[in-house]
Write a structure and sequence with these properties.
This protein has 168 residues and is mainly beta. The protein is built from one helix and ten strands. Strands 1, 2, 3, 4, 5, 6, 7, 8, 9 and 10 form a ten-stranded antiparallel β-sheet that branches. A hairpin with a 7-residue loop joins strand 9 and strand 10 (159-164).
Length: 168
């Protein structure tokens, strides 16, 4: 096993230890430029809050994050043609230079009704002077999330996922 593989394994174990006690945690990929693995987005709930944690890998840095959550996909900000509008997402951070961003959203603040949360997570990432837009759920990183993702209906490559709330 190479030194690089051991470092990645140690980092993965550290990441998993941060979500101990969250059996419902999922980790869809975060892909830059549609196909370039840039990290993952951890999603879980504790019965009171929805927690979404962006985490980059492979030398990528988060410079912006945009997050939308709703109990109905039609409530995610998008144009009439179905293109997502990340600038209108309710949760955003800009002017960043970090590898981790965490949003904690009270479940009672999520619009709509039901036990399914629709989540659209967008970011701008940079590495070695290169900047790319990134979306959660573009493709699975082996060993992480393999759940259902839905592409927005417009002419954009953005995706959202469905997250079932943990039973109380």
């Amino acid at each position: 096993m190479s030194k690089h593989t051991l470092i990645q394994l140690a980092a993965l174990l550290l990441l998993v230890s941060t979500v101990v006690g969250t059996a419902s945690a999922i980790a869809p990929s975060l892909n830059a430029g549609k196909t370039i693995p840039a990290g993952k987005v951890w999603v879980w709930d504790d019965g009171t809050n929805l927690i979404v944690k962006y985490e980059t890998m492979y030398g990528w840095q988060l410079t912006e994050t945009h997050l939308a959550v709703a109990r109905n996909p039609d409530l995610l900000p998008q144009t009439k043609k179905g293109n997502p509008i990340p600038g209108q997402f309710a949760y955003k951070q800009e002017g960043l230079s970090t590898t981790v961003v965490k949003e904690i959203i009270p479940l009672d603040d999520i619009p709509g009704e039901g036990d399914i949360i629709y989540i659209a997570a967008h970011a701008v990432v940079s590495r070695n002077g290169e900047s790319e837009t990134a979306w959660m759920g573009c493709a699975g990183l082996e060993g992480y999330y393999t759940g259902v993702r839905t592409q927005f209906g417009g002419n954009n490559w953005g995706y959202y996922i469905k997250y079932p709330l943990s039973p109380e």
